[in-house]
Amino acid sequence: MMIDVPDIVRPPRELMDALQGIGSATCAGEMSRLGIRQPHIQGPVAWTPGRSIVGPALTLQFMPKREDMYGAGEYEDRERQLHRRVLYHTQPGDIVVVDARGDMTSGVFGEMMLTYFMGKGGIGVVIDGCIRDYPHAKTLDLGYWLRGVTPNFHTQTNIVPFAANVPIACGDVLVMPGDIIVADDDGVVVVPISLAPELAKKAGEHAEWEVFTRIKLAEGGELRDYYPLSEEKWPEYEAWQKEQDET
């Protein structure tokens, strides 16, 4: 029996490109000013230091295992495996985000599933839980934000995949299918598509003056003057910016 899993609506590539390189910390701060108080997915942390990614969310939801609804036969019929079927929709640049209920005993994906995801163009995995086969998985060209790793496969223990490409709660944050994920060493931030254009504009401006501020602070400039950038120092920043544009 086949299980229908919808695809996601992906935001325009240029919108995600505008957020690339800004960083999760700047995004989280600006998101707060735009009215989203807690965009940070808490729990999963970076297992691939130095990796920074931006992309749309494929979503996977797990629920507690109940044998009358998920028996051994479910696993024997591989086309009923939702953790497999969500990956069928992978397009280049996608990120799979999984509500695994913070479970530390179940490996949501293993080496072969992750290899397939990478081969289809996936760039990152965010799981409020674990993966397995980490010695092999860490050699793949993927970014990982996880609670941990385990030798167990997912239905071996207490949770089972329940729905795919539906709204999920990952790390106590609502993630809609197709939301933009910004992830780096600071963590994972969820950006609603409707707010992404304004966020890109504000975060881009923030990132620009922070470059100037970083230079001035390293030269011994006063913190009260340069962070945040004071009105008195704004003309100095604009002059510096013009100089950069001319070089």
Instruction: Detail the poorly predicted runs.
Output: none
Report the average pLDDT across residues. 90
Distance between the termini: 63 Å
Order of helices and strands: HHEEEHHEHEEHEEEEEEEHHH
Instruction: Using the 3D structure, state the CATH architecture of the largest domain.
Output: 3-Layer(bba) Sandwich
Overall spatial form? elongated
Structural domains: how many:
2
CATH topology of the largest domain: Glucose Oxidase, domain 1
Helical residues, percent? 25-40%
**From the helix content, strand content and strand pairing, which structural class follows?**
alpha/beta
CATH class of the largest domain: Alpha Beta
Tell me the β content: 15-25%
Give me the Rg, rounded: 21 Å
The overall strand count is 13
Number of helical segments with 4 or more residues: 9
Provide keyphrases for this structure.
2 domains, alpha/beta, single chain, 22% strand, 247 residues, Glucose Oxidase, domain 1, elongated, two-stranded parallel ribbon, 13 strands, nine-stranded mixed sheet, 9 helices
Give a written overview of the molecule.
With 247 residues, this protein is α/β, with parallel strands linked by helices. Helices cover 32% and strands 22% of the residues. The protein has helices at residues 13-19, 24-33, 72-76, 82-85, 111-119, 134-137, 196-218, 223-226, 234-246, and strands spanning 40-41, 45-46, 53-64, 95-99, 124-127, 130-131, 143-146, 148-149, 159-164, 168-170, 173-175, 180-184, 187-191. Strands 1, 2, 3, 4, 5, 7, 9, 12 and 13 form a nine-stranded mixed beta sheet that branches. Strand 4 (95-99), helix 5 (111-119) and strand 5 (124-127) form a beta-alpha-beta unit. Helix 2 (24-33) packs across helix 7 (196-218). The longest helix is centred in the last third of the chain and has 23 residues, at 196-218. It is elongated and about 70 Å long. The relative contact order is 0.21. The model has no long low-confidence stretch (mean pLDDT 90).
